[in-house]
Write a structure and sequence with these properties.
This protein has 305 residues and is of the alpha/beta class. It contains 14 helices and 12 strands. Strand 5 (109-113), helix 6 (118-122) and strand 6 form a beta-alpha-beta unit. The structure holds 1,3-dihydroxyacetonephosphate and iron/sulfur cluster (SF4). 1,3-dihydroxyacetonephosphate binds at residues 41-43, 87, 115, 129-131, 174, 200, 202, 216-217.
Length: 305
């Protein structure tokens, strides 16, 4: 029996024994997505983490995602199989610098992308993901200034979509999506002129401007499934191709660049998931005083329809 099959079978047994649920982001390795109970984008994964009655959540994603699960479900054991799987963009803002900035912007509403630490969420008013950022910003009274952290590209996109002139974006960015430049997309479009261009709003604004569809990862998957179109150019992390191809046999998906690989999302392996279920480590926990404050930001986000 090959290694993937053997490990998958052992993981299935352990999952039952430990009453665990395995959640995977769509950027994870294909074999991780295949073993997961649920594969989704950041928003769907937060919802699942909040709703599950499993005792253990194995989070196949990056640290801030597991932390959100620990904030939403403090009574559960939350495991991050690779403890060093972080998000460089989330590290571009910390609680001290945010506090200093807030002092310069009295009265501003702080909207934090979920790609932030629990400490930063605790200093924010409301969280958002790429799937609901526009709706979250629209839920804020128009006269209130907004400090949007940490993604300047998502901030730019949201300001454009909502017409908010009083939105100030932090200058963070995703260094995976940042690798994609306009020339890559122009080349892909020349090669596949009939294909629909889909881009994640973490991409640079001049890439987003070229896209026919701008959406979160789940939004892109939904669009590709429902659309009558047959060919798509994909401007986001390459792990998503597994879901596109699995769900849409017969349709064609072309990555705009082969450089869009997030090493943190690829750090989780079946071996590590197996090990995490055996040892129930490494765990992600959040100190209670921070958790309670961070929970408010996440709950406000989840309440936005
Ligand atoms: P979504 O899955 O919410 O679109 O987020 C993309 C991402 O970069 C997560 O780190
Ligand atoms: Fe962070 Fe970008 Fe990797 Fe997502 S793809 S985890 S935003 S570095």
């Amino acid at each position: 029996m090959d290694k993937i099959k053997r490990l998958s079978e052992e993981i299935n047994l352990l999952r039952e024994q430990k009453k665990a649920i395995i959640l995977s982001h769509v950027y994870e390795r294909p074999e991780i997505q295949e073993i997961a109970d649920f594969v989704g984008d950041s928003l769907e994964l937060s919802r699942r983490a909040a709703e599950t009655d499993a005792e253990v959540i194995v989070f196949c994603g990056v640290h801030f995602m597991a932390e959100s699960a620990a904030i939403l479900s403090p009574e559960k054991i939350v495991l991050l199989p690779e403890k060093n799987a972080g998000c460089p963009m989330a590290d571009m803002v910390d609680a001290d610098s945010l506090r200093a900035r807030k002092e310069q912007m009295p009265g501003a509403v702080v909207v934090c992308y979920v790609n932030t630490s629990a400490e930063v969420k605790a200093e924010s008013d409301i969280a958002c993901t790429s799937a609901n950022a526009v709706r979250v910003v629209e839920s804020i009274p128009p006269d209130r200034p907004i400090l949007f952290i940490p993604d300047k590209n998502l901030g730019h996109y949201v300001a454009q979509k909502t017409g908010r002139k009083n939105l100030t974006a932090w200058q963070g960015f995703c260094n995976t999506h940042d690798k994609l430049i306009r020339t890559d997309v122009l080349k892909a479009r020349e090669e596949y002129p009939q294909a629909v261009i889909m881009a994640h709003p973490e991409c640079r604004p001049d890439v987003v401007d070229m896209a026919d569809v701008v959406a979160s990862t789940a939004g892109m998957i939904k669009f590709a499934g429902e659309s009558g179109e047959r060919e798509f150019i994909i401007c986001t992390e390459l792990g998503i191709l597994h879901q596109f191809e699995k769900r849409n046999p017969g349709k064609k998906f072309y990555p705009a660049s082969n450089r869009l690989v997030c090493p943190n999302m690829k750090a989780t392996t079946l071996d590590k998931v197996h090990q995490a279920l055996v040892s129930l480590e490494p765990r992600v926990t959040v100190p209670e005083d921070i958790r309670v404050k961070a929970l408010k930001s996440l709950e406000r986000m989840l309440a936005v329809k």
